[in-house]
Specification:
About 30% of the residues lie in helices and about 20% in strands. By secondary structure, it is α/β, with parallel strands linked by helices. Strands 1, 2, 3, 4, 5, 6, 7, 8, 9 and 10 form a 10-stranded mixed sheet that branches.
Length: about 230
């Protein structure tokens, strides 16, 4: 595993150093998956946790170096819900989190994703507990079929993310998907993060909706380091 960093645009904010951590899965040195799918659950909870913990360790080390170099960057890090689905798995994730200096934890947003179909409010609360002593901002990527985001609002998540890079819809269809997503999130007073944007019309509409943040190849190329110039 290795990590890349995707520049994130904060809507209605001045230029800022904001990135999303992208895990990269390698096989014989060749990239086989990039982004959250590189940490996809494969029926092995501990294996998922080990890979996710490794990604966090790499990202937090890079975040530390960036701040030491004078760049006050902020970072969204992915955590697969299955990586915290058991006590032993959650212990691995917490161990990686503890590697980050307490002074830098305010610069991190945790994005939890790949929730089980059977997700309940109690399950979501249990998943969130391991992060509460360390971070104060949590983002959730709802499953594509979810149409009610109430449980995220009730669990103190500040926002929800829509990953268009993982969907087949393009053009007007992508805008329609985003509009429906935005309406439900806004109804629950959740911020909206739109990821994987490749089309200007989609970016324009997301900006019109005052989404909290945007990213994608249209807005900035993935980077090896957060200390490089975007």
């Amino acid at each position: 595993m290795k990590v890349l960093y995707r520049p994130v645009l904060l809507v209605n904010h001045e230029a800022t150093d904001f990135y999303r951590c992208l895990p990269v899965r390698l096989k014989n040195g060749v990239e086989t998956a990039r982004g959250k799918k590189a940490l996809r659950y494969n029926n092995e909870i501990i294996e998922t946790a080990e890979k996710n913990a490794r990604v966090l360790s790499l990202a937090f080390a890079d975040l530390t170096r960036a701040h030491a170099a004078g760049k006050k960057v902020r970072l969204i890090v992915p955590i697969n819900s299955y990586a915290i689905a058991s006590g032993d798995a959650a212990t691995l994730i917490v161990k990686a989190i503890r590697e980050l200096d307490e002074a830098l934890r305010a610069a991190v947003i945790v994005e939890v994703y790949e929730f089980p179909k059977s997700l309940t409010l109690d399950m979501l609360a249990d998943m969130t507990i391991p992060f509460l002593p360390f971070f104060d901002k949590f983002l959730a990527e709802p499953r594509p079929e979810m149409t009610d985001f109430t449980m995220f609002a009730n669990s103190n998540y500040f926002g929800v993310s829509l990953n268009l890079g993982g969907r087949v819809e393009k053009g007007e269809d992508a805008v329609a998907v985003m509009t429906k997503f935005w309406a439900e999130a806004t109804n629950r007073r959740l911020k909206v993060v739109v990821q994987g944007i490749t089309e200007q019309d989609v970016a324009d509409k997301a900006t019109q909706y005052e989404a909290f943040a945007l990213d994608g190849s249209l807005l900035g190329a993935d980077m090896e380091s957060m200390t490089d110039d975007a």
